[in-house]
Write a structure and sequence with these properties.
heterodimer; A: 303 residues; T-fold; 8-stranded antiparallel sheet; 3-stranded antiparallel sheet; 7 helices; 16 strands; 29% helix; B: 112 residues; 1 helix
């Protein structure tokens, strides 16, 4: 812990907001430069929405060689493995069919067509994605979507690198995926967990001093096709958005990507989420669509 | 036909050869020493990592002493032998726990 004056900068990146905070104001320019660099590199490697990205090449041709993409896919496959496929990076084609085929800002919020898709095969195809060195290969027809892990992983990478370079305590928040590194300020980093990362209302304020904190929500990135309300957290069992049991789920873990993997899995699991999280000793706060709050493991009580 | 160098040119050429040789030898030595230090550091880091892993408490062994005081609606931790999690595989760092705070928030975690 350190007594410090927290200084921060906010900017738009990778289709969301980046918020970078440091405990030493003199290090903020370096922190911002490093964050922007990490996010630019991530976008070039892992964006589904730019034709020149390594991920787009992978999804077009079935193979791509790029060190950052290989690492990001490796992280996504590990998340899939550790959740038994609840967080599945091989659902890109389902996301496209559902209408999320461009940056979310460009996705029409309403469309007349009712979406109809076949359920994914019982054999989880993410298991057939391979990473060999810097080369990623996917089975024919499979499209990868790294939305559930890449942003959180980038927050971890950026926070760690900035702390290593500057010696300051660092918090990197990428669209609600929060990673911290270095010495935290006295009392920790106070973070509001709420449905929308852009909101400064509601939810609960907690403090963290290491690892990561992430919140997944079904209400922010959502759109409508026909009479069906859709969102971006897909259930691998159906290929459709997960049932709206929880409005949002916040999880604290040793890293931001671990936290975001778990919060995404919680939305997919629905009413089974509390026991699943408790079994993994992951502190979590789940808010049902009706507003009822369930806390798991050692998540703190509301003040 | 071979041409003899004058003495000054010969000495200058010999001096350049000496300088170049000294430079090459110095660089080689520096490289070898640097490589040696690099390897030594890597070995130290690996040893420290292994020692840290051996000494770190097993998160699965931490039984959660506050089970009797969990707030209403809270699901306590269970011991189920479930697999560990990304970033917390095996005997790595214990999972951090969020704490209550009265400080105003510096940022928000929410859907995006």
């Amino acid at each position: 812990m350190t007594t410090a004056m927290i200084s921060g900068v906010r900017f738009d990146a990778i289709g969301t907001t980046a918020h970078v905070l440091v405990t030493r104001p003199d290090t903020l320019p370096v922190a911002e430069t490093m964050s922007r660099w990490v996010l630019d590199e991530l976008d070039l490697a892992c964006s589904r929405f730019r034709a020149d990205s390594a991920l787009s090449l992978l999804n077009r041709t079935g193979s791509a060689t790029h060190p950052l993409l290989a690492q990001a896919v490796g992280v996504a496959l590990r998340a899939a493995e550790d959740t038994g496929g609840l967080v599945d990076p091989a659902l890109g084609s389902y996301m496209i069919t559902l209408g999320y085929d461009r940056t979310f800002a460009e996705v029409p919020r309403r469309g007349p067509t009712t979406v109809d898709i076949d359920a994914p095969p019982a054999r989880q195809v993410w298991r057939d994605i391979t990473v060999t060195g810097d080369t990623v290969t996917v089975p024919r027809g499979v499209k990868v979507d790294l939305g559930a892990t890449a942003k959180a992983w980038a927050a971890d990478v950026a926070a760690r690198r900035i702390a290593g370079e500057t010696g300051a305590g660092v918090l990197v928040n990428l669209g609600g995926d929060v990673a911290v590194a270095g010495a935290a300020p006295d009392g920790g980093w106070s973070v509001r967990v709420t449905a929308d990362h852009a909101s400064d209302q509601g939810g609960q304020v907690v403090a963290i001093d290491s690892g990561g904190l992430a919140t997944s929500s079904v209400s922010v990135r959502s759109w409508q096709r026909g009479d069906r309300r859709l969102h971006h957290v897909l259930d691998p069992a159906t290929g459709f958005p997960a049932a709206r049991f929880w409005q949002y789920a916040s999880v604290s873990a040793a890293s931001c990507v671990a936290a975001n993997t778990a919060s995404t899995a919680a939305l997919v699991l629905g009413d089974r989420a509390p026991n699943w999280l408790a079994a993994r000793r992951l502190p979590a706060r789940l808010v049902a669509t009706g507003g009822a709050v369930t806390t798991v493991a050692e998540w703190p009580e509301e003040e | 036909m071979a041409q003899r160098l004058n003495a000054a040119a010969r000495d200058a050429a010999a001096s350049r050869v000496t300088l170049i040789t000294t430079g090459v030898v110095s660089l080689s030595l520096a490289g070898t020493i640097g490589l040696g230090y690099g390897i030594a550091d890597m070995v130290k880091a690996e040893k420290a990592k292994a020692q840290q892993a051996a000494e770190a408490p097993d998160p699965q062994q931490d039984t959660g002493s506050q089970q009797g005081t969990v707030p209403q609606g809270q699901v306590p931790p269970k011991q189920t032998g479930q697999p560990s999690y990304p970033g917390t595989q095996g005997k790595q760092t214990p999972k951090p726990k969020p704490k209550p705070t009265t400080k105003p928030p510096v940022t928000s975690s929410g859907g995006s």
